[in-house]
Amino acid sequence: MPNQEYILIKGYKHIKYTVKKLSEKESLEKSEEFYHFLNSRRSVRKFSSKPFSKKIIENIIKSASTAPSGAHKQPWTFCVVSNAELKSKIRQAAEKEERESYESRMSERWKKDLEHIGTDANKPFLEDAPYLIIVFKKAYDLDRNGNKMNNYYVNESVGIACGILITAIHNAGLITLTHTPSPMNFLTKLLNRPSNERPFLLLPVGFAKEPVYVPDLQRKNLDEIAVFYE
Description:
The strands form three sheets. The chain has a three-stranded antiparallel β-sheet with strand order 3-4-7. A two-stranded antiparallel ribbon has the order 1-2. The radius of gyration is 21 Å and the shape is globular. The mean pLDDT is 95. It is an alpha+beta fold. Helices cover 38% and strands 16% of the residues. It is built from eight helices and seven strands; from the N terminus they run E-E-H-H-E-H-H-H-E-E-E-H-H-E-H. A hairpin with a 5-residue loop joins strand 5 and strand 6.
């Protein structure tokens, strides 16, 4: 923006930050509305194959990229897969890892804890959803000469970005669920990612298949998740 007000701090330009001022009543109303909006979000495993504009995905990813990050390094890459053949390969590889997990890696207690959710090793949503967003974290960056450049608080930064990503998906009227097949190294190979990137999270994105049902889950009450020191 031309003529934007700024100052120099230690030789670096800092622009004036402005935010819309709200009354306490407006702030309370908006905070309640936003809570109820997010409280309606659910992880859904039944996807319609109904297509939608790639521009929506682009806006969702741009929203996620507004997340704070250590030293503003922005240590993330969002890989978007819509190619049917590649989605099929991802599903096959993911289900292979999931079957091994259910058969030998997961404890009986873990599997028992998952029973009420209804999940298993079959992941049809990896092909049904029009888009898959695979988030990679950058353990470090590389300069033009291939030299390593440090990134900081990578897991924290990418985790915050993923939270905003999920919120942006919900805000667009779409559904998703968090999928983390373990290990996820197959994603690095299938998507031909460089050695400094590590798969962090896979999110199928699309519309819910109708009718769709989700587990009747209840979130913890405020007094179970927050402690106030007054």
